[in-house]
Design brief:
This protein is α+β, with helices and mostly antiparallel strands. The protein has nine helices and six strands; from the N terminus they run E-H-E-H-H-H-H-H-H-H-E-E-E-E-H. A hairpin with a 5-residue loop joins strand 3 and strand 4. Helix 4 runs antiparallel to helix 5, helix 4 crosses helix 7 and helix 6 packs antiparallel against helix 7.
Length: 226
């Protein structure tokens, strides 16, 4: 896995609540450590719907999100409050949009990724839709919205999502979210252990087995060079 200096490579699915918590922690760690001008996040798609050959079901998010929320309570969370018919059946368009924003800059991609996560988990917006993606882009800084719309319309970033999916079929990327620092240090859901058991309920029970927030801080320091 090649990671550019001063960069953390972030592989994730926008529909994964664990990745929402991890990405929020990344932003928080970078700010607390005073490294906002030195460290960038390079977002890559880990499209679960392509791996699983089905949409990520609403119930799956409803079960995991309340537990993931305990890891990053200030990240913006709410139970889905829009009509059930507005639940995004695919998250390929917004993941493509993040790759399209990356054609402008890593900063633009970071801003759009964070805005889309907030829109889905905190505002119950259907981020599959083109107009919602562009609305979120207008609410963020560092994004040329007209250029983003053009990239979405001609599909120039679509291949990047497929390339990420194929790359993630190897041994290095193990799930969402998996983070890589330039020195080779990497971890899936850094510092977090997730437990699950079949407790007889329709979807089982999940919980946090361990939590070491310093693991994220360590990755950010390593990306900064020490």
């Amino acid at each position: 896995m090649h990671v550019r200096p001063n960069t953390i490579s972030v592989w994730s699915d926008l529909g994964c609540p664990w990745s929402h918590a991890v990405v929020w922690r990344l932003w928080d760690a970078r700010r607390r450590l005073g490294l906002e001008e030195r460290v960038r996040f390079d977002h890559h798609a880990f499209p679960l719907e392509l791996f699983n050959e089905e949409p990520t079901p609403r119930w799956h998010v409803d079960v995991e999100a309340p537990v993931a929320r305990t890891l990053a309570p200030r990240a913006g969370w709410q139970a889905w409050s829009a009509p059930d018919s507005s639940w995004p059946v695919t998250l390929l368009p917004p993941m493509e949009a993040v790759q399209a924003a990356k054609l402008q800059s890593l900063e633009a991609a970071e801003a759009l990724d964070r805005g889309l996560r907030r829109a889905l988990y905190g505002e119950s917006r259907c981020i599959s839709l083109r107009h919602v993606i562009l609305e979120v882009a207008r609410e963020a800084d560092a994004i040329d919205v007209a250029a983003l719309a053009g990239a979405l319309d001609d599909g120039r970033a679509r291949r990047a999502v497929i390339d990420d999916w194929r790359a993630a079929q190897g041994d290095e990327v193990r799930g969402s979210a998996h983070l890589f620092a330039p020195d080779g240090t990497n971890a899936q859901n850094p510092g977090i252990g997730i437990g699950w058991e079949d407790d007889g309920s329709p979807h089982g029970r999940t919980w946090i087995e361990r939590d070491d927030p310093e693991a994220i801080d360590d990755l950010v320091r390593r990306a900064a060079g020490g």
